[in-house]
Amino acid sequence: MTATTETRKFEAEVAQVLHLVTHSLYSHKEIFLRELISNASDACDKLRFESIANPELLAGTGELHIDVSWDKAARTVTIRDNGIGMTRDDVVANIGTIASSGTRRFLEAMSGEQKADARLIGQFGVGFYSAFVVADRVTVLTRHAGAAPEAGVKWESDGRGEYALEAVTLPERGTTVILHLKADEDEFLDGWKLRSLVRKYSDHVAFPIRMPKDAPSSADDAADENAAKADAAPEWETANDASALWTKPKSEISDEDYQAFYKALGHDFNDAAAWTHNRVEGSQSFTTLLYLPSQPPFDLMMGGRDERKGLKLYIKRVFVMDAAEELLPNYLRFVRGVVDADDLPLNVSRELLQHNRQLERIKGACVKRVLDLIEKLARDDADKFAAFYKAFGNTLKEGIVEDPANRERIAKLLRFASTKGEGAAQTVSLDDYVGRMAVGQDTIWYITADGYAAAAGSPQLEAFRAKDIEVLLMFDRIDEWMLGHLHEYAGKSLKNVAKGELPLDAADKAKQEEAAKAAAPLIERLKGLLGDRVGDVRVSARLTDSPSCLALADYEMAPHLARLLREAGQAIPDSKPTLEINPQHPLLQRIEAEADEAKATDLATLLLEQAEIAAGAPLPDPAAFVQRLNRVLLG
After folding, report:
1. Quick one: angle between helices 559-567 and 597-615, nearest 10?
2. Beta 415-418 vs 472-474: how paired, if at all?
3. What is the percent of the chain where pLDDT is above 90?
4. Is the CATH number of domain 247-404 3.40.50.1000?
5. Which of 66, 167, 379, 579 is the most interior residue, by most CB within 10 Å?
6. What pTM was estimated for this model as a whole?
7. Which has more confidence, 133 or 469?
């Protein structure tokens, strides 16, 4: 039949990625080989899994493998696999258009003045495009397993906005990617260089990565050898370990082996912070190899909850799926690793996994292992744990809500700034806090705000500082939501210093009642001056230096969180604040003595507005606030 070539334009965002790759990426160029080998390995994994139900898909070739070769004369590097292959529709969907929003996030990460870096490619699932880091033209030849030879597809592009599609006849299934190297990329035409990259990045790929044996070392040698062996098939030798690392005894695996496997598994250039490798024997046998990253993937908090790529599930060393949602809860989505089960059905589907009791037991074991690993890191290496917590602490806090069974263990791992610390970076655990509590104190006190400075400078802390009572400073956006589910720890209740009325001893209570009685006329005047802008006015037990603050009901939402939710389009019920005052402050005494009703109204309103600002609440009318402030300043 006559082949016809169709030319198509890339989807706009793919074109943007290719522009970045072609013009901006400069470091770690060798990433292309890792990514293309990883894609080839996935194709072999998929075929092995599909062949369980359709053994005929494996017909025609021997063992599954990946071949890496090069041609100095033609200036090409070729990566071929005999895996599942692609149909024409697969090629268009996987290469020509957006296959996932990972591409979109890649573009976001590369925006602004940040220099693009090739190490980011794998983290966003756009690994194929790394070919254009070193190539000015890429050719793909592919045929889906089970399809006829004439159902092959040829894809070709120079990465400048268009690609060509052509139907071709291919004798074997699988995918071949041919990179036509740029003029200044000669280093990748060296066999020793390519072998070293295979060993560095892909040694633990579980399929043989084959390379030509006794490859010539120069273009002249290549020409001579090609002439001598024009019709001879190449001799191949395996360049990688080609075994499943997690199946080996731990005594045979070095730390370097573990780290190399992690980097290949997680598409990461950084070392893992820690890992745990375990084999469970019994009525249900399985192996787990779980890693804590040292740095978060870029999509962890940018929609990563819906697009996690955490643990890989194998059954008897046959890859089944990236099954993070079945193997770990959301709050541990940063964990990378492998689970290999012995006794799950090989034809298991995602729907079956969601209702599988055996998998629930594996999931429980994985959660326990991960929490054990984090606890060990916190206990044995404070600096490494601090870096880990900075990267993943907020994600871990989600577990307080999502995993009630492990709430106490998770809470033990959390760290917070404190009024006894120096700056936001100096944090304490809840155990630290409880260990420093005064005799008779039965409450863990905290305050929430939308920043460290706002928390540390809150007027609600004044009475606690005066009594030398430590308060935890919580200023991450997730904290208020989390604390709605963390009501006690180690038998101690947690309470927000800004909510409710403070518990007072007999002497303080008598003093408070006396102050309230003496300030009754002032309170009534303030209620009249402020009208419906407040729900109540009362003398504060919290204040020693500031003139006013807002007090919240026990179950009322903090003003800064209510503001954030409104800005996000959430409907938040209106509530009138309670204004607490310090009658001894000169500003209150001035209001009490002010005979001019208009001036008194300005002063009282400013009293309320400064309390709202300190609490993170939005001013209802900033322009009126400025005018009012100017009137008072001008006297």
Report:
1. 80
2. antiparallel
3. 55
4. no
5. 66
6. 0.75
7. 469
Give dist(CA 21, CA 12) in Å, integer: 14
Is the per-residue pLDDT at 417 higher than 80? yes
Question: Are the C-beta atoms of 558 and 454 separated by less than 8 Å?
Answer: no
Contact 150, 160 (CB under 8 A): no
- The fold of 5-241 is Heat Shock Protein 90 (3.30.565)
Residue 187 pLDDT > 90: yes
Q: What is the CA radius of gyration of the chain?
A: 32
User: For residue 440, which amino acid is it?
Assistant: G
| 326 pLDDT above the threshold of 80 | no
Amino acid letter at 369? R
Determine the Cα–Cα distance for residues 132 and 23; give it in Å rounded to an integer: 10
Q: Which of 154, 162, 140, 37 is nearest to 96 (CA)?
A: 162
Residue type, 127: G
DSSP codes of every residue in 289-327:
EEEEESS--TTTTTTTTTS---EEEEETTEEEEE-HHHH
| pLDDT (mean) for 87-104 | 69
Please work out, in degrees rounded to the nearest 5, the angle formed at the alpha carbon of residue 339 by the alpha carbons of 335 and 342.
165
329 HSE (CA, 13 A, CB side) = 20
Residue 474, strand partner residues: 448
- Tens of pLDDT along 441-468? 999 999 999 899 999 999 999 999 999 9
8 A C-beta contact, residue 590 and residue 548: no
* CA–CA separation, 369 and 618 (whole Å): 44
What six digits make up the tokens of 215? 């490859």
Tell me the two tokens of residue 48.
Answer: 């092995």
| Confidence at residue 1, expressed as pLDDT on a 0 to 100 scale | 42
Give the 3-state secondary structure percentages of the chain, helix then strand then coil, rounded to 5: 45, 20, 35
Kindly indicate the confidence band of residue 574, based on its pLDDT and cuts at 50, 70 and 90: confident
Q: What 8-state DSSP symbol labels residue 161?
A: S
| In the chain, domain spans | 5-241, 247-404, 426-497, 502-635
Q: Exposed/middle/buried for 46, CB within 10 Å: 0-12, 13-18, 19+?
A: middle
Inter-residue contact 200 to 260 (CB < 8 Å):
yes
Diameter of the chain by CA atoms?
110
Q: How far is CA 104 from the centre of its chain?
A: 16
The answer to whether the CB of 493 falls within 8 A of the CB of 487 is: yes
Q: Are strands 66-71 and 209-212 parallel, antiparallel or unpaired?
A: parallel
Report which of residues 352 and 216 the model is more confident about.
352
- 278 within 8 A of 288, measured Cβ to Cβ: yes
The H-or-E segment that residue 353 falls in is helix 350-353
277-293 pLDDT, tens digit per residue, is 999 988 789 999 999 99
pLDDT, averaged across the chain: 85
Which two structure tokens, joined as six digits, stand for 211?
Answer: 């390379």
* pLDDT band at residue 565 under the 50/70/90 scheme: confident
Residues 6 or more apart whose CB falls under 8 angstroms from that of 554 comprise 499, 500
pLDDT of 411 reads 97
CATH 3.40.710.10 for domain 426-497: no
